[in-house]
Design the sequence.
């Protein structure tokens, strides 16, 4: 008699359909979240960010969002004109709000851009960098409050066997602000304008509508 244990055959489970991206974002930022638990306000905010039509020189992709800053998050990255400038925009949402935000949404950005030598030594350049953001938000009529941030000038010079390398300089802008409604398209457009200014692009002529290239990335 054969005394070997009977091993049950493995069952083939049906393939599960992947939830929408907003659901995957929410699940990645907390335990046991399902699509039904995603706030409508968060889903609407994501869609308005996606709907923004940035100028063609600003190449935008969705990217995985940070997981520990808020219960729900969504992120975009962008590069402008051959890496003359680049940036990241993160939308955070806490349905219960956070005191420091003065609301339940927060937009956070980091922008880096190369500087020409004469601009790098200009004592006003740090204020100019902040004006790129504030003017862009005002220009797009993006309602917001509690804006804050820092602007940093970084200069590099090589020495020794690398002394022949040209000196370089960059400006880095770290900022955040609280939108006053869930229509974040004006904020995304302002972010794109800020990137274009940082890259030294000329403003689009009045009446010209930007037609961006298709967005891609692993987040879709």
Sequence:
């Amino acid at each position: 008699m054969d005394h070997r244990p009977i091993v049950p055959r493995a069952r083939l489970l049906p393939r599960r359909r992947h939830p929408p991206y907003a659901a995957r974002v929410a699940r990645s930022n907390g335990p046991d979240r399902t699509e039904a638990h995603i706030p409508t306000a968060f889903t609407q905010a994501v869609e308005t960010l996606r709907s923004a039509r940035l100028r063609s020189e600003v190449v935008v992709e969705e990217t995985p969002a940070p997981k520990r800053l808020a219960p729900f998050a969504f992120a975009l990255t962008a590069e402008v004109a051959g890496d003359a400038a680049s940036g990241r925009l993160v939308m955070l949402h806490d349905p219960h709000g956070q005191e420091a935000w003065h609301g339940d949404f927060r937009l956070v950005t980091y922008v880096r851009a190369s500087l020409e030598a004469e601009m790098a030594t200009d004592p006003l350049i740090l204020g100019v960098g902040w004006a790129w953001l504030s003017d862009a938000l005002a220009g797009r009529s993006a309602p917001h409050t509690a804006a804050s941030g820092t602007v940093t000038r970084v200069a590099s010079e090589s020495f020794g066997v690398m002394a022949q390398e040209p000196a370089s300089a960059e400006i880095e802008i770290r900022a955040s602000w609280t939108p006053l409604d869930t229509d974040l398209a004006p904020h995304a457009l302002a972010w794109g304008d800020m990137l274009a200014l940082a890259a030294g692009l000329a403003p689009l002529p009045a009446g010209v509508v930007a037609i961006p290239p298709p967005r891609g990335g692993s987040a879709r």
Summary: The two ends are 57 Å apart (CA to CA). DSSP finds five helices and six strands in the chain. Residues 21-199 form one domain. The helical segments are 21-28, 40-51, 117-120, 125-139, 185-199.
